[in-house]
Amino acid sequence: xxxxxxxxxxxxxxxxxxxxxxxxxxxAVTALGPISLDVPRGSFLVIVGASGxxxxxxxxxxxxxxxxxxxxxxxxxxxxxxxxxAGIVFQQPRLFxxxxxxxxxxxxxxxxxxxxxxxxxxxxxxxxxxxxHDVAHRRTWQLSGGQQQRVAIARALAGDNPLLLLDEPxxxxxxxxxxxxxxxxxxxxxxxxxxxxxxxxxxxxxxxxGSRVVVLTSRPGQxxxxxxxxxxxxxxxxxELRPSPSTRPCVPPSVMPYATPPDDHHRTGAHMSTPLAxxxxxxxxxxxxxAQIEGLxxxxxxxxxxxxxxxxxxxxxxxxxxxxxxDEDGQVTLGRRLGELTASHPVVGGVDEAHPEIYAxxxxxxxxxxxxxxxxxxxxRPPLGSILRAVILPPTGGDTSWADSQLAxxxxxxxxxxxxxxxxxxxxxxxxxxxxxxxxxxGKGSVWDGxxxxxxxxxxxxxxxVHPETGRKGLFVNPGFxxxxxxxxxxxxxxxxxxLYAHLTxxxxxxxxxxxxxxxxxxxxxxTSHYANRDYGTAHRVMHRITLRGDRxxxxxxxx
Length: 560
Description:
The protein is of the alpha+beta class. The protein contains 13 helices and 26 strands. Helix 2 (about 100-110) crosses helix 3 (about 115-130) and helix 2 packs parallel to helix 4.
């Protein structure tokens, strides 16, 4: 194992005796350390390890998103500051879907302090560098997954930061696209000479990209191997650089066993620490989740303000906005600025022909939601989030409550968390919507994920979902659509789900909202469940909801 260098001008990253612990007391988990290493300027370090080895934790410490429990991390000789001194590429591209490809890169340049005239020149240069010079005008949702990740790399390069941090950026891509992007990244690294720290599960990817490979043990992550890669960095074609048995590091099987990722009790705050978040006036509604956003008109909000809303949504999970003047057109426009809209519902049609995206919850048409549920989990790709607007309200009653599924998971006893981590559950929409699909829609529902819904086949999802943006775990079962747990008896399944439901809906996990006309609520469907009170008798209640397209839920043991 290489010993740390003396910290000097040739050291880009210095990590000294770092230990990082999540949680406290009996729930404390040591995710990393002790670990020490130095990364020389201009080098390409690749960190390899199994799930739970602390790879991403180490990267977040280097980025300044978290502070180590013990030890010191320095970049360029100083304590790291989030958003300063390093360009970061995450596992998901995290682009702004309402902006063009060029607009995403231009926004990064703007926040790097680049003048307008200079931005106009540099955006095409950066896109050319990642092979996207001909798509600058397109919206990001029109691109493939590989192209979106190239935009993310261009954005990370925009600030001229001397350090580039990459957290498994190609893990979700197919093999051919992954190899092309590996080649692009290696070329860009050679051209810019920036110091890079890259996290991956793949030894082959590590050898192809890195000038040096560090292999971490399973939790708590410590350095098991620290190897220089015996390949020239320039002058060879990509096929010549792909590792052969003679160049691939020999990694003992004992170094890389599978391990469950550490409990991410406190892996939030990176979003709200960005400059964008400072533009919002946010009043927390509880110690852990929920917030009222004050003084923001959603109909006229600037792109930067909506970017801050999107970041706050991930951290606070449920956001409320009062005094809004949105109509149907305005609600749809808002949704499109925040993400890609789905159809109103897989089974139920839109509110009218002009607004197929709006799902009307009308009490006069059995539009009730008086059961705890997470929206549309009976589909393979449930929505990312929902935006709900009050249209007609009863004089009293009709409140909505939300439960924080991540807080509920965190507060389970450790043995129950370990059990839940291993489980898969079936979600079935037939009980609620099967009759509606067959009788009222004639067996032909909406277009969902590119296909017309003609039947509701039950789907399986992990009982514990890992949030794709924060890495936090949360319970992903709900009484509305979860039918049973896979691989256990009916009685065992019933008792397991009853335990989880009762825990999820404990008062300390819940916030409740009393509606007024002009209110708009947004929630992260990946980390919450909700319930609408049906306590207003024959009074009329109408709510309009739109949903943002989501991804396939992944659990602690799902392949990344």
